[in-house]
Write a structure and sequence with these properties.
By secondary structure, this protein is mainly alpha-helical. The protein is built from 13 helices and seven strands. The strands form three sheets. A three-stranded parallel β-sheet has the order 1-2-3. Strands 4-7 form a two-stranded parallel ribbon.
Length: 353
């Protein structure tokens, strides 16, 4: 083998309802990537207990995320869809990576600081070690590419740091095991077992903001349901939320430059552009000079036309949990076969009898 086999890995936590931002920023991109590489898409249920240990219905949330994957167009036969906890090698490799990573690396993670808040001493150890598990999720499949948003770029850099330290610390043992590949990192030649995973950024990522505050990201955790369009919302609810979305009193500008300093206008134009696969400039060439009372109905019609088939398919799938469980079982078995091979090699490299 002269190089690592191209492989995509990504995962979504089963917490809260998926919304328009998740669809445009993740799910739709996941679907498009299926034609380019082998894909492994995971529902990361073990990650979901790092910040909140007790969930009312974690199994139901896991099935709901799986339904969203399938409804968006991911093919579970050509690719792999499974839930993280079905493959215990994720946790096993995470422990080894806990021993590879340094405490200082973890303490620098901005997401831990944000989620732990001021009372860091009371945060779970799992929340601190979350990036080690994320690295294991990716590298237990020796994945080469991960589609990421801005909030995960730091974690992906840490994944590369962990892979590099493992490769350097065990380089002689990797050679002896005959499982490595010669790569160059910067100017440094390395005989690597784990690839230096690359972020996959497909075009300009639509940054979907709250419908109530254009300066904040659309979020599953926002207490106001009017702040987001859930993938489970019916057409009437979608239209009502867009109608109630915060705007300013001015007409839409004719050029993108005119959106500066107008976060809510910029957000709604950006949503329209992303849903229609158009540029903001193109949208403004059509709607520039119009009031939001004219633009919002057009946006609502577009959102409903794009999301309604996904919503309908999600509802159909959610009504058949047995089918979802069968997809996850098949995916878990196929993912597990890959992960077992990786961990067999890791045991040999590390020296675990």
């Amino acid at each position: 083998m002269s190089d690592f086999k191209p492989q995509i890995f990504s995962g979504v936590q089963p917490t809260g309802n998926l919304h328009l931002g998740n669809y445009l920023g993740a799910l739709r991109k996941f679907v498009a990537l299926q034609d380019k590489m082998d894909c492994i898409y995971c529902v990361v249920d073990m990650h979901s207990i790092t910040a909140q240990l007790v969930h009312d219905d974690l199994k139901g949330q896991t099935r709901a995320i799986t339904a969203a994957y399938l409804a968006a167009g991911i093919d579970p036969k050509k690719h792999i869809v499974f839930n993280q906890s079905a493959v215990p090698q994720h946790a096993e490799l995470a422990w080894i990576f806990n021993c590879v990573a340094r405490i200082g690396w973890m303490n620098r993670m901005t997401q831990f600081k944000d989620k732990a808040g001021k009372d860091r001493e009371n945060a779970s150890l799992g929340l601190l070690a979350y990036p080690s598990l994320m690295a294991a999720d990716i590298l237990v499949y020796r994945a080469t590419h991960v589609p990421v948003g801005d909030d995960q770029k730091q974690h992906l850099e840490l994944t590369r740091d962990i892979a590099m330290k493992f490769n350097l610390d065990f380089e002689k043992k990797i050679r002896a095991a005959g499982t490595g590949i010669d790569i160059t990192v910067g100017d440094q030649p390395v005989h690597a077992f784990f690839p230096m995973v690359e972020p996959l950024i497909e075009g300009p990522a639509p940054r979907v903001m709250s419908l109530k505050d254009g300066t904040k990201k659309m979020s599953k955790s926002d207490p106001s349901d009017l702040s987001r369009i859930n993938l489970t919302d019916d057409a009437e609810t979608v239209a009502r939320k867009i109608r109630k979305a915060k705007t300013d009193p001015d007409a839409l500008p004719s050029e993108v430059e005119g959106l500066k300093g107008r976060p809510e206008a910029d957000n709604l134009v950006g949503i329209f552009a992303a849903l229609a696969d158009r540029t903001k400039a193109d949208v403004l060439s059509e709607f520039g000079g119009q009031q939001f009372s004219q633009f919002k109905p057009a946006l609502a019609d577009l959102a409903v036309s794009v999301l309604a088939p996904v919503t309908a398919e999600m509802r159909r799938l959610n009504a058949d949990p047995g089918h979802i469980d069968a997809v996850l079982k098949d995916g878990g078995e196929r993912a597990g076969a890959i992960a077992q091979k990786t961990m067999k090699d890791v045991h040999e490299i590390v020296g675990l009898l």
